[in-house]
Structure formats: structure tokens, C-alpha cells
């Protein structure tokens, strides 16, 4: 047996070396070193699989699996999220060709266009305009107006509005931790989470109680906001009234 054959056979099954492999290793110093490296790598892999996974990892994997990669349309980055609202006329030009859904399924992209149009539309100052934080009682009230209850906190909300969408009351929140807008809608738009991109905005639609949660954020040119933890938080906290 030569060195090439030894290494190919050892890599094929490093855990069960045959007698001819052991004989060659004992006679060849270079292959002895190689076999030692493979043995250490196998030991490291064995130890790695014994590490306990982080809490909640399974739920995150299931959510991510529903967001299958596919084609997307990305617009140039925006410097600030509020700049989008300040340039409604410019952004609305792209709404006609807005959003290729990330999944290859047939879905109503008109919903996404309407949601972005709502986001970019004019709004009054909002419940958190003066204090930069909406009290928990007001958050609960906005959700109740839209037909939802709560069993937990949504997190810190910077502003909130009692809006309407397709002539139905919805809850409109601006989250404090990240530049993310959350719309809680009493419409059954999706059966599972759907990602979309376009017009300088990325978003996700996900089932939430009897309705739909829409999260929207802007491309900033830097690291994108991870929306999945926020989806999980809303789904855990919101129930049907």
C-alpha cells in the first residue's frame, strides 16, 4: 500500500482502520502524522455533537425552513427609515412592480403593495409622539380595537396608531429596539411565514392568532434586521379576543 491509497482509505472510514492501514501507518512517519490529525478531528466532531443546542433553536429552525430562498428584487439602500416616508412620491413609482415574493408560490402580491402604501402614507403624531414610548395599556387597547387580545408583552413600542386597512381596524406599531413597523391585521392572508423584498423595504407576513402579522423594515446598507425573533414574540403574545 502506498501513501495515497492509505490516506484515501483512512478518510473513507477513519473510525475502523484495517490491518493493512495499521501496518502502513506503523512504517510511514508522514502517514502516522496524517492519521493523528484525522483522529483529532474525529474526536473534536464527536465532542461537538454532544453539546446541547440553545434553547428555542428548534422553533427558529422550523420558522426559517418556511422561508425558502428564492429570487428577490432589491432596491438601492436607504440611509434612514423615515426618509422613505418623506419621499412617498419617489417610492410609489416602484410600487407598480413591487415585490417578488421570496417563495415560489402563487400569492397575492397586491397585499404587500397595499401594506407598503399604508406605511408610506400620512399618519397623525401617534400615541408615543411625545414620550417616545407607548404605555402597555395603550398597546393592549390598540390590539383590542382590531379584535385581538394579549397574553404577554410585545416589547417596547416607540409609537402606535389606531389605523384602518381595507376598511377594517388594525394595530400599527413602531418598535423601539429596531426600525421595524408592525401591523397586526384581522385578515387571514397567509398560512405560514412569507418573506418579500422590494422598493427599499424588506418584510415578512406571518400568521398571528386569527389574523396576520406584517413586519416591515428598510434596507439601510448595513446588516439587515433579523425579523424572526420579533415574529415569534408577537405570535406568542397575541391571541384572538
Structure summarized in a few sentences:
By secondary structure, the chain is α+β, with helices and mostly antiparallel strands. It is built from 9 helices and 9 strands. The protein has 2 domains: 3-49, no CATH class; 57-240, no CATH class.
Task: Kindly describe this structure.
The chain is an alpha+beta fold. The chain has 2 domains: 47 residues, no CATH class; 184 residues, no CATH class. The protein has 9 helices and 9 strands. A hairpin with a 2-residue loop joins strand 7 and strand 8. The radius of gyration is 26 Å and the shape is elongated. About 17% of the residues have low confidence.
Would you tell me the overall average pLDDT? 76
DSSP summary: helix tally: 9
- Which spans have pLDDT < 50 for at least 5 consecutive residues? 66-107
Which value, in Å, is the CA radius of gyration? 26 Å
- Assembly state: single chain
Give the termini separation.
74 Å
Order of helices and strands: HHHHHHEHHEEEEEEEHE
Which sequence of strands runs across the widest sheet? 1-6-7-8-5-4-3
Assess the beta-strand content as a share of residues.
Answer: 15-25%
Largest sheet: 7 strands, antiparallel
Shape: elongated
User: How many structural domains in the coordinates?
Assistant: 2
Give me some keywords for this one.
single chain, 241 residues, alpha+beta, seven-stranded antiparallel β-sheet, two-stranded antiparallel ribbon, 9 helices, 39% helix
Write the SSE topology:
Blueprint: H1 3-12, H2 19-27, H3 29-49, H4 57-65, H5 81-86, H6 88-93, E1 100-101, H7 109-120, H8 136-145, E2 148-150, E3 157-165, E4 168-175, E5 180-185, E6 194-198, E7 201-208, E8 211-218, H9 228-237, E9 238-240
Antiparallel strand pairs: 1-6, 2-9, 3-4, 4-5, 5-8, 6-7, 7-8
Helix pairs in contact: 1-3, 2-3
Amino acid at each position: 500500500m502506498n501513501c495515497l491509497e492509505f490516506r484515501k482509505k483512512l478518510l473513507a472510514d477513519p473510525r475502523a482502520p484495517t490491518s493493512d492501514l495499521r501496518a502502513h501507518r506503523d512504517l510511514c512517519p508522514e502517514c502516522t502524522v496524517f492519521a493523528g490529525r484525522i483522529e483529532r478531528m474525529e474526536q473534536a466532531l464527536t465532542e461537538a455533537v454532544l453539546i446541547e443546542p440553545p434553547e428555542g433553536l428548534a422553533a427558529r429552525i422550523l420558522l426559517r425552513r418556511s422561508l425558502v430562498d428564492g429570487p428577490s428584487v432589491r432596491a438601492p439602500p436607504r440611509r434612514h427609515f423615515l426618509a422613505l416616508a418623506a419621499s412617498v412620491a419617489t417610492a410609489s413609482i416602484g410600487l407598480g412592480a413591487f415585490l417578488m415574493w421570496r417563495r415560489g408560490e402563487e400569492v397575492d402580491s397586491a397585499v404587500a403593495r397595499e401594506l407598503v402604501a399604508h406605511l408610506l402614507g400620512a399618519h397623525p403624531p401617534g400615541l408615543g409622539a411625545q414620550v417616545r414610548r407607548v404605555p402597555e395599556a395603550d398597546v393592549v387597547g390598540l390590539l383590542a380595537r382590531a379584535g385581538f387580545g394579549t397574553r404577554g408583552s410585545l416589547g417596547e413600542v416607540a409609537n402606535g396608531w389606531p389605523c384602518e386597512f381595507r376598511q377594517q381596524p388594525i394595530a400599527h406599531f413602531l418598535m423601539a429596539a429596531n426600525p421595524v413597523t408592525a401591523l397586526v391585521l384581522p385578515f387571514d392572508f397567509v398560512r405560514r411565514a412569507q418573506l418579500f423584498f422590494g422598493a427599499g423595504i424588506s418584510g415578512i407576513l406571518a400568521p398571528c392568532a386569527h389574523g396576520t402579522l406584517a413586519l416591515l423594515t428598510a434596507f439601510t446598507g448595513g446588516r439587515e434586521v433579523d425579523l424572526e425573533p420579533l415574529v415569534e414574540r408577537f405570535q406568542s403574545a397575541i391571541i384572538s379576543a
